[in-house]
């Protein structure tokens, strides 16, 4: 019984620290309109956390869901717009100092991309804690290609 409750609190602690690790999409907001062929900024936030973690990479993909439901970023990322290092930083410019550590990626919607809703999916890979456990999380937002 004692052991079970210890295990349970360890699990809760582990779940909390994994949650605290999570990055997220700070921009664009859900349902932002972006014209095919134009640039847009994807801001990937990486809230500060207590457990040390080492960034590996992010992949940002765009998948049209104009004619079918979005499958979710863990299943399909679609057209890869960015695949490379992730280096989230605090900003010092006035008005931006309350933002969490983040990196902005300026990406281009391909000019022949299907119009309508598109899943903007992000896969984030990092190494967690002293045990250097490899982790991957995915998250998404929807943009409207015009
Ligand atoms: C990143 O983009 C956001 C939203 O457009 C902006 O508020 C922030 O200042 C930008 N950060 C940097 C480092 O340019
Ligand atoms: C297809 C998919 O996984 N959509 C998810 C995108 O992210 C929102 C939360 O921000 C989820 O509610 C959707 O299910």
Quick recap of the structure?
The protein has 146 residues and is mostly beta strands.
Task: Walk me through what this model shows.
Helix content is 14%, strand content 45%. The protein contains 1 helix and 8 strands. The protein has a 5-stranded mixed sheet with strand order 2-8-7-4-5, with no helix packed on it. A hairpin with a 4-residue loop joins strand 7 and strand 8. Bound molecules: 2-acetamido-2-deoxy-beta-D-glucopyranose (2 copies). Residues 70, 72, 119, 140 line the site of one 2-acetamido-2-deoxy-beta-D-glucopyranose (NAG). Residues 27, 41, 43, 91, 96, 104 line the site of one 2-acetamido-2-deoxy-beta-D-glucopyranose. Keywords: Signal.
Please give the radius of gyration in angstroms: 18 Å
Widest β-sheet, arrangement of strands: 2-8-7-4-5
* Structural class label: mainly beta
Distance between the termini: 59 Å
Instruction: Count the DSSP helices.
Output: 1
CATH superfamily: Immunoglobulins
Mind describing the biggest β-sheet? 5 strands, mixed
What is the string of helix and strand elements?
HEEEEEEEE
CATH class: Mainly Beta
Q: Give me the CATH architecture, please.
A: Sandwich
CATH T-level fold name: Immunoglobulin-like
Signal peptide: 1-20
Pfam families: Nis1
Keywords: Signal
